[in-house]
């Protein structure tokens, strides 16, 4: 338990996206915590966590402000992080939700808002220092994927801080998240029969287990840490360590071929993420979690343990270049799998050209 001054009553905390995923995990963690006077759950459906006050509303509804008059801290965890979702619909939801939460919180005089983006906003590059300092510049490339969503959300935060100077906003940037139900470009990378790498550069791997993200969120909700906060396991794993732990071998390709092929596949709709997302599985983006370390926070999960858990969770799933394969396709080798995806892309392009000719 985090000590609370006798002069100050414990805050009332509200959690959006409380019925599922990270929101439910955080809600369950704080539901009976003495560090909060009361816990309020906000979602568009009633969840199964007991001992909290449920308020059912779409987080994008402007009427949200009417439900926050008694809230001291709002932890915003509602969002669409589905890798295969329509990019424009997903971004529309995520930005509208974040904008509504920030505006409604300011209108209701909520003292503090906590949001989660990703350490991906630092960008992944072959010349990144390892680790990146927490205050390193945001250098990710805007794209149609989730990284682009995170960049837009952080831009909303900066505008909100200028428009509502009385509102404190803390942004948590976790490393590659691992846990039940987590489906990302990074987790799908480990569903492949071989680990894609590019010639001349070895990635370093840092993970953030959901359990550790939850405890970091609690510290942010209590105001123990503020501003921009990186979250992840201590240190990192070298590529050779990852291969030893996973038992997976690497598939090394030239960078130009890798990214040009990935972009072509994405344009044809055969892979869910833009080519820039592949940077995060071939280049380093390890962060130094200085703010949390300074207040005595220690991750419960090591990078090794988090990776082992990720490998357990991937059982029965197979992907190549971020694309999930059917059970029939899953029996092919990594090289054949890559060729199959590229071949499908070429076939699709030929079919489209033929259709255009017929129409003309």
State the share of residues found in helices, binned by percent: 25-40%
Largest sheet data: 7 strands, parallel
Going across the major beta sheet, what is the strand order?
3-2-1-4-5-6-11
Order of helices and strands: EHEEEHEHEEHEEEHEEHEHHHHEEH
The quaternary structure here is single chain
| Structural class designation | alpha/beta
Mean pLDDT: 88
Contiguous uncertain segments of 5+ residues: 327-354
Number of strands: 15
Q: How far apart are the termini?
A: 70 Å
Number of helices: 11
Strand proportion, as a percent range, falls in 15-25%
**How large is the radius of gyration?**
21 Å
The coarse silhouette is: globular
Report on the structure:
The chain is of the alpha/beta class. The chain has helices at about 20-30, 85-105, 145-165, 185-190, 210-220, 240-245, 255-265, 280, 290-295, 305-315, 335-360, and strands at about 10-15, 40-45, 55, 75, 110-115, 170-175, 175-180, 195-200, 205, 205-210, 230, 235-240, 250-255, 320, 325. The strands form five sheets. Strands 3-2-1-4-5-6-11 form a seven-stranded parallel beta sheet, with helices on both faces. A two-stranded parallel sheet has the order 7-10. Strands 8-13 form a two-stranded parallel ribbon. Helix 1 (about 20-30) crosses helix 5 (about 210-220) and helix 2 (about 85-105) packs parallel to helix 3 (about 145-165). It starts with 11 loop residues before the first strand and ends with a helix.
